[in-house]
Amino acid sequence: MFSLGSGGGKSAKPSFVSYVTPEEIEPEPEGSLQEKSPEFLPGEVVFCSAKRILRCTQDDESECSVFGTLFLTNFRVSFVSDAVHSEDTVQLFKNKLYGENDIPLACVDQIYGDYDEKKKLITSSQVKNKYPSKIIIHCKDLRVFHFSLLCVKEEVRKKIFQGIIHHILDPKSLKCIFAFSYGEKAAPVPEVQRKQKTLMFETAEDWAAEMRRTKGSCKLVEDNKDFQIAQRLPQFFFTPTSVENEDLQKYQGRGVPIWCWSHHSGCALFKTAALPIAQEESTSKVQKAYVESMLNAVAQNHLYSVKTVDLSDALPNIQDIQQSYNKFKQNFLIDSIAEFWMSDVKWFSTLETSRWLSIIRQCLHKAVEVVESLERENTNILLIEEGGSDLCCVISSLVQLMLDPYYRTLVGFQSLVQKEWVAGGHNFLERSNLLHQRDKELQSPVFLLFLECVWQLLQQHSPAFQFSETYLTVLSDSINVAVFSTFLFSTPHQRATIMKAELDTGTLNIPPVWQWSLQFDCKAQGFFINPLYKAKSKQEKALRKAQRPKYTRQLSLPSTPSRRGFFKEETDNLKKMLRVKRISRWMQLPDSVQACVREFYSVWQRKPLDYHGLLLPCLDWPAVRLWTQRYLRWIPEVQILGGGDVAMLNKVAALVREVQELRTEVDRQVSQADPSLESPLVFARSSVRLSSSFPFAAARVWSFRPAIPISIGDSQMDLGQLASRDDEDTDYQ
Amino acid sequence: MASASIPVYNSNPLENSSSRNASNESLKMELLADVPLLPGEERVIDKDIIYICPFNGPVKGRVFITNYRLFFRSVDVDPAVTLNVPLGVISRVEKMGGASSRGENSYGLDITCKDMRNLRFALKQEGHSRRDIFDILFRYAFPLSHGLQLFAFLSQEKYQENGWTVYNPVQEFRRQGLPNDQWRITFLNNNYELCDTYPTILVVPYSASDEDLRKVATFRSRGRIPVLSWIHPENQAVITRCSQPLVGMSGKRNRDDERYLDIIRATNKMTSKLTIFDARPNVNAVANKATGGGYEGEDAYQNAELVFLDIHNIHVMRESLKKLKDIVYPNVEESHWLSSLESTHWLEHIKLVLSGAIQVADKISTGSSVVVHCSDGWDRTAQLTSLAMLMLDSYYRTFRGFQVLLEKEWISFGHKFASRIGHGDKNHADADRSPIFLQFIDCVWQMTKQFPTAFEFNERLLVAVLDHLYSCRFGTFLYNCESARDANEVKMKTVSLWSFINSDRASYINPFYTVEFVHVLYPVASMRHLELWVSYYIRWNPRIRQQQHSPMEQRYKELLALKEQYLRKLEELQLSDSTSHLSNSTAPSPSTPSQRVTHLQTPF
């Protein structure tokens, strides 16, 4: 059993070599705490606290700064203001785990110290005897906190500073992650039973259900139940029918095509981890034969051609992604108003140099390529990547989102993430560097990149998605809360063993992120629903079924043994034919794909848009945009008071609600029956003036004065002589 | 359809191949019938031609030129490619290639348009096939350079609405609560004697005499004295507009002007210092002294503070738009889109204009009066006052109010539309041309984008305004000032754009509009929120999805319809329930939807 050092979990003395003396972990004298302290979570332990901390708001130190107490716990850094909170107004969108002045430890991105007016990045090794007058914390959810320690006693200052640095920056072991102490103490939350449930893909049944839903035909592999094949593979998965059991073992599951999704035409999407590069020729030969046989398996299974898409070649690698995001996020971690307006002038070019939007575009482009092959050419696709669980996940999930409207529902999307990312073995633990490993090579925001791509689709085709952008933003925040099992592990094996071991002892309950009621009450969860979404009506469904062209499904081999023989003669002949033609090849996508994708897009674009059908993103530049809600929500200068798309969405939501109520009333009057409950859709009363960052940062009081750009002394525009010319060329009188 | 008064040109110079048979002829007749003609519009020429579409390659078809438009329709292409371009949009017509040019489609015409596109047509290289069409296009696209009339004067269009009545200055000032004890309406400029580029009706401080005004006029460029544009209904702070003072190199002073500005300051007790917003960059204001202009010096105007807003001149804006066109037409710059966009500075200029207007609005709402000017007070000044008024006064955000705003701050106060747009004038390189009004409309668009529920009109109205800014179909934007409009009897002889717009009000209404009177609307003038107006600047590109209605709007309308449906159903149900009360509820729902809501919500 995993335990927190001394067991019980009462005192949170960590089991790793501690740099902090036990005294520091002792909580402050009770008296001071009782009055003002955050509501601690189950399993949360206070390490230390400091009073008289000044929280500054950007430049206006004089006006908006507040004194308060800073708490450091095993979960968060929490600032509790001394000021009496009169504005405890109805906050519609409150996170139950942490508030606006709380920073979960895992959410801290960088810590800076203000040393004599100089801002220095703090890496733990640096900390010796000098304590900064101010700590600046940059969060992964893009909040920025300034805490001034000037009014704090030297002793306390040292303690709180060292504590924060230690607990945030030093490497720790997995079991020290807050989820474990929380999981021991928290009572399981009964999730509201919904009609539809998120498929977790932890059981063979879930996989089989998915296969049935997509009407695919592959072979269920159960050999990895106890991770005999590979730790990074799910316990259950599907492969092409002709993949033999011994094939699975050969390279620890590498090279084995893992089924992702089946197209209604019968072709399917697979992914695989690339084989290690062979040194010797003989092994290389064997490998080649192996790869050929796997490709054959993919092809023959469906009697379609197969395309392999090597993502390692085509897309930026995880380090590129990390680097790009590091640059990109700096645009939003704003320390001062002056800095904000300074950077405003060069906004577009700095955005461009980060290349983050380009990477998003590249991923979407690649996904469209794959979609084209599946949709237009009915080709099987095998995605290949070194580990098979980073860009493979990005591309395969995007492809499925574009092709399958089910994944654009809330539950469908969550199932997709479970299938491709969680069961698919994405290394969440190391990609988020939750353990603060010194070696940051494995850190990369791959999952966030996926969410970014989804957001692009969402903003281009909003009515096609049941979930809202707020849902995506919250999901992206949840990665950094360190409470949810979803984002905690590096392999399915680790997940299964730890969760199971702890479960057996009956003490641990680490919830998946999908238990939204842990973070938001029912009403707040209403913000996850996109009011523009319209579920497909039954009539439409029937109509579509009738319209769908009959694919010659006879071509695909019946895979289940029970059906074998049904088409035997016919298929045998086809098999023979195909052997002659040998369709399966390492078909690299040619250079002209750019043009192909364009063509594919414009053909699709000319057809009437069906939100419950194929969805393609426009990849021309102005259409790829910045996810303003996520990135701008905490910056006061860019809040549009009374504006933003929120203003419109709110009106739509209100109307949806009104229509729902009317319908219930009609139903009640017609049938005298109980009205069926609809998903609650919330909206703010129109009397409240919202800001564009709503529902985020709602507790803040926005200034009623406008933000006036600070002009930068010399204009950076190179205008040449034109600037000095007079407006009128005619002679002046 | 062609009228006899128009010289009949041989319409078929290419028609020499015998293979063209009767069926082809009849096809042509059909095509001809499809050419939309406005009352008063007359066909001049038509010709087989190849349209070199930058997106889909060459398209064979036929071009028709009337005294109003160029119309092209493809043959043998499905779906048909059509072009419908008012000739007023054309800024330049050039011959492309020569009789000896080699290569396919290398001989023809190149047409540059004012609305962010170019057109290219190719003809067969034989017998000067393009000469007649070139000449005609040149004549009719630039009628003023050829002694012809603008189409607005030939149009016979009739509308039920009369757009010329939209703006009545006295009525508008009355809406603002003027005249009052501090401000009076003067007819001093009735014959354009005080200032020939101002309207006839002006609002000036009560305590300034007509004589004072005349004296001040001598010290303000082109006599454009400070006059009231808008007054805050509560704190009585005012926006006044004018041109630069004629300070000159020697730093001349004028007591009357100084006193006049102090009178303006004193009309509002809260204003201890009058804020003068000079729209120009500081250096330009200084440079203007060399040509006799300048700015209000600190010594001379002690009760005023001067703020420069750093907005550049018309030439800078023209170049900026040209650069923008380069990166969006025909194809959107692929490799370095964002930095290319930045290097056009277009959005940066938008930011400066908006941020200037925000400062004006902020000053007013904190209770101090302002004076706004640039050099002549008809370009940047109009941008700033009208945008500030849009932020401060929700009336201008209504469908009607916006028209009033344009009529008032732009048209009546002498923004030089004729010079800036070059209506009917062939001199495409004229340095007087500049997209100042487009820039203003872009700023308005940015505001509608940031406040999607605050404006009663929608994006289509803004696009329609811009389209007819160039089209010369309506008289609204013709000429430089009111005196010229009067002299040419524009209101008598042409139709107003608002007649056209107001006859089709429903198309231009924003369904999300929410009436909200109280608040000042401050847009965020940060590059983070400013966007390129794709659906205007890149609208010719078929790859940019043009949605007739945004999905949001569509969904909203669907929901409204659903709501109606349920309400009707409920009403029916209630009717059938209460048969005893038949007498008072049989009328088939004459009430408005909102009334019905209140009526029906009681049972809940």
Q: TL;DR?
A:
Chain A is built from 25 helices and 14 strands.
Main features:
heterodimer, A: 733 residues, alpha+beta, PH-domain like, 3 domains, 8-stranded antiparallel β-sheet, 4-stranded mixed β-sheet, globular, disordered C terminus, B: 604 residues, 5-stranded mixed β-sheet, disordered N terminus, membrane (chain B), Prot-tyrosine_phosphatase-like (chain B), protein phosphatase (chain B), phosphoprotein phosphatase activity (chain B)
Distance between the termini of chain B: 63 Å
Q: Could you say which overall geometry of chain A the principal axes of the C-alpha atoms support?
A: globular
Give the proportion of residues in helices of chain B: 25-40%
Could you give the count of β-strands of chain B?
14
Write down the Rg of chain A: 28 Å
Give the count of helical stretches of chain A. 25
List the uncertain runs of chain B: 1-29, 582-604
Q: How many domains of chain A, as an integer?
A: 3
Using the CA coordinates, give the radius of gyration of chain B. 28 Å
Tell me which protein chains meet in the greatest interface and how many residues each side has: A-B, 78 and 83 residues
Shape of chain B: globular
Largest sheet of chain B: 7 strands, antiparallel
* Lateral arrangement of strands in the main beta sheet of chain A: 4-3-2-1-8-7-5-6
- Largest sheet properties of chain A: 8 strands, antiparallel
Strand content of chain A: 5-15%
Structural class of chain B: alpha+beta
Strand content of chain B: 5-15%
Average the pLDDT over all residues of chain B and give the rounded result. 89
